[in-house]
Amino acid sequence: MKDTWEDVDEYFDDKLHVSDEITESILEKNEANGLPAIEVAGAHGKMLYLMAKMKNAKTILEIGTHGGFSSVWLGRALSEDGQMATLEFNAAHADVAEENIFNAGLADKVKVYRGSALDTLPSLMEKGYRHFDFVFIDADKENYPAYIRWVLEFSKTGTVIVADNVVRNGRVVDDETEEAQVPYIREFIDIISNDPRIEATALQTVSGKGYDGFLIGVVR
Ligand SMILES: C[S@@+](CC[C@H](N)C(=O)[O-])C[C@H]1O[C@@H](n2cnc3c(N)ncnc32)[C@H](O)[C@@H]1O
């Protein structure tokens, strides 16, 4: 049986034209290539796009590319001269992402950098990136604390930071949880909580992907 929120997702997807041929083809290609269905929900992909567009982002960093679904949503928000770096350590995921990004007409703006994000992040400055206007963190949760420290290095006043999967079906507040990733999410939240450079909130979400949520912040 479908959950109510899946019907609601479908209603808004239809009414607000959330998906299109390109985003649908990305999901099909990801599935055909055996990638796990761990992309953000369509409505959340469009939310990321709208947020980056509201920010008028010229530089975007994504940690965790997968098949490029959220990369394409974010890349679409870039201005003509905009650039996006997206980091992925799984070569098969990166191959599919590059194809999806090319098919979306974004290959000149959205670059997939292969390797462990913690190895790639220090090299981004040599690649010409200095500050990012918008950052989306969506990779291994164990490294969220390290990622936020790096992201702050690449931030300036007004940088928007969004991180996925911070609610984890509510387990973020469950002291009894055995989920190994929860302590890292809490450490990530504690870093933000104690850092006067960031103003943040969290948005709980339900979708076809279940109950989870985003951390949303801006650098002062
Ligand atoms: C949840 S998926 C990203 C989904 C994507 N943002 C989307 O919504 O379409 C997480 C991705 O991060 C990648 N990943 C995990 N650990 C990583 C690491 N240490 N460095 C780089 N990528 C990593 C995984 O291979 C996976 O493709």
Which key phrases capture this entry?
single chain; 220 residues; alpha/beta; Rossmann fold; seven-stranded mixed sheet; 20% strand; globular; binds S-adenosylmethionine
Describe the structure.
The chain has 220 residues and is an alpha/beta fold. The chain has one domain: Vaccinia Virus protein VP39 (Rossmann fold, 3-Layer(aba) Sandwich). Helix content is 40%, strand content 20%. It contains 8 helices and 7 strands. The protein has helices at 4-15, 21-32, 42-54, 69-75, 91-103, 117-123, 144-153, 182-194, and strands spanning 59-63, 83-88, 110-114, 134-137, 160-164, 198-207, 210-219. Strands 3-2-1-4-5-7-6 form a 7-stranded mixed beta sheet, sandwiched between helices. The longest helix is centred in the first third of the chain and has 13 residues, at 42-54. The N and C termini lie far apart (45 Å). The mean pLDDT is 96. Residues 38-40, 64, 66, 69-70, 87-90, 93, 116-117, 138-140, 143 line the site of S-adenosylmethionine (SAM). S-adenosylmethionine is lined by residues 38-40, 64, 66, 69-70, 87-90, 93, 116-117, 138-140, 143.
